[in-house]
Amino acid sequence: MLIRGWIGGLFVLILASLVGAPAAFAEGGISSGGGDAYAAEFVHIGKEVLNMLQRVPVRGVSRDRFRAVLNGTRVYSQEIVRLDGRELDAVNTPAEHRVVLSRSRWRALRDLPRNKLVLVAHEYFSLMGLDDKNYAYSNAIFSRPGIPTISYTCNLFDDFGPLAKYRLQFLIYKDFYAALIVDDRGMPTDDLGITPVYTYTIHGNPKNLDTLTGEWVVTAPLYFTTRILSLDYSDKVRSGNFRTLDVSSLNPIATKKSSTACKVVRN
Hints:
This protein is an alpha+beta fold. It has helices at 37-55, 63-72, 103-108, 113-128, 136-141, and strands at 2-7, 10-15, 25-26, 29-31, 74-78, 81-83, 86-88, 90-93, 98-102, 150-154, 167-172, 177-182, 197-203, 213-222, 225-233, 240-248, 255-266. The chain is built from five helices and 17 strands.
């Protein structure tokens, strides 16, 4: 069920769904469906790679071609992926417009968001026909991230009983972004089967973080509710309460406004 709504002046498209419900299509690409959160996250990161290429063009990489491959590739996942007896992170098949992702290898990257970005870029670059066998393009484009420019750690699940120990963490680096679920030790986890999705509107010069203002909107499907968190983004943003909207997928559809406490760290 698709619901459109305004949040703090930003128009967003909300996918109201259950945890583990089928998500056959993701904006900007295609996942395999069947509640495959791994494939859905892979496709979502592919969209982030496209956003990066649009902001900062790279010699030898066609943005239009990348977009076409992203839109036309179906992504699947399975626990272990092998080719010719070797275990791999993923295998792409250009003739079938398909990527098969290793869930076990993907989980191993859960606290390394930049490595996920490199892997996703590598698979799509290979499908474009670029010679990226040794990650020449993908590693050159995405160097190690270092420390986030801004990090938000939010008590997004405080009122969801057994989920209360988990936090949403949203990290902003110089040229990419990552949304993670972390446990009470601050370690990334996929135990909840939740893949946060985020969108944004930015005002200012994207090459100068100090001039940017805008808003990040992070959505997370929780049981019969989609929770939407609006994170102000400017040089004045500080720790505090941020606007939250719950959209119930039950009939009749209902919405509820609240707020979520977030700790903001600027580096």
